[in-house]
Prior knowledge:
CATH class of the largest domain: Alpha Beta
Distance between the termini: 38 Å
Oligomer: single chain
CATH topology of the largest domain: Dipeptide-binding Protein, domain 3
Amino acid sequence: xxxxxxxxxxxTAVLAASSLNACSGATRPQTGTTGGGGAAxxxxxxxxxxxxPLDSFTWSLYAEPYTLDYALAYDYxxxxxxxxxxxxxxxxxxxLKVEPGLAVKWAQPDPRTLVYxxxxxxxxxxxxxxxxxxxxxxxxxxMDPAIGSPWASAFxxxxxxxxxxxxxxxxxxxKADVLFHELMAASPGTVVSAASLAKEGPDYGTPxxxxxxxxPFALENWAQGDSITLRENPAYWxxxxxxxxxxxxFTFIEDAAARSNAFLSGTADGGYMVPSSSLAQLRAGGxxxxxxGPNTAAANLAVLNFDGPLGSLKVRKALSMALDRKNxxxxxxxxxxxxxxxxxxxxxxxxxPEKAATHYDTLPDLPHDLExxxxxxxxxxxxxxxxxxxxxxxxxxxxxxxxxxxxxGRQIGLDVKLKAVSPDAYSSIFVDPKARDGLDLVITxxxxxxxxxxxxxxxxxxxxxxxxxxxxxxEFDVVFDRANSxxxxxxxxxxxxxxxxxxxxxxxxxPLYEAPYSVFLGKRITGAPTGITQLYxxxxxxxxAAQK
Length: 548
């Protein structure tokens, strides 16, 4: 999932990162050393710049994209590819700043009206010129129930999207919605050719269909089950991001060990979300480097069922208190990472770092107290009751964390049962409510597409697509609406801190840990952004030769 929603944790690569006692988190640019004698680390937004051009390079994905339809792209693999092919009205940069994209400027004449002025002369891959009509068709498509876009909730307050000039689009809202504008830098703001949408029909975004966007690379071929190949767009409008490579080939390797071997052997030149079980091997292998970048993600336990034992706040608090987060980090990630202090990661506060220092860094560590937790379970009358936690072979970290949660639960009198499902079934939990039947908990990786922590907390609103357990809290919803109508970022951050407080008090999700993003770059390439903004920023354009 591309929003602060709780996307499959399996995609997470845990960074070599910072002191387990650090209050600053592991998801922002920094330099330091790990606690307990761990290796030194550095978190920076980019790798060293390319020193020359490349004919091509090969990039490893941990799974084949299930779609290349921007309206359905809600996970790491499709967005990693699409970031280089299609673009948004706004752009999030590697250092987590929001800047103009296909919209050169915007205005807000009143709280419920947004006017975007488009960049002139932008060409689609077929040579046609982007117009306001393309933008309108692209945005409206995400609102169409027949499409079934998981991003439709971003448009919940949109009244109309209209062409008001050849290069002007006006969006009228039913009520003020700050996050809607910010999400124009993510999938909701994607612009594609309206003519191509009509031409491709049901084949759009599938291996049979074509993509016609504006990015620095165009789709050349999707050999289903084997690879996706992109070719450079010589007419790309942003000369500062003109591709340094003529083509990119994406390969799909689900097995973590096989993927690491591809990095070590040079079969794959690079890849994001390095398997945490192979970090030490890859760092010592001599065939490249593991780099770490800013992240807006944190691993959490999302409650899927509030009708069972976890419907009791005492039981949720007890389970949280039973978790030994430092040992979970040791077991799941080789000792690298930082215990989470809240559902949204410290890195999600990048919009206003000074507010992160005030509202996140000052949070106390989450307590670890087995005796107090056992007492809460007894008070709730939940001793011996069963809780079902879903697990999967999708990534080794999932089963490691699941086993740790099971052991913690049993220590306090809860019968945590593990239900193993296939990788596809695990991913379905985040898009299909029926897939959650019979499940109480899922291990997730909640992250922001944009550097505003409010984005994460919107997915805990009653009725939101990303509110997987259908949790509802009136106070939370009222504060969220106030925050989402507040144009001043500092005041909005203060209101977001209140949402954070409620989420920590009520625990609809139980925080686990956070870690920076990771990328492996083989010896022949460099120039890649290192952080989570690679999901929308055209990262492949900056990759080139490591040597002249």
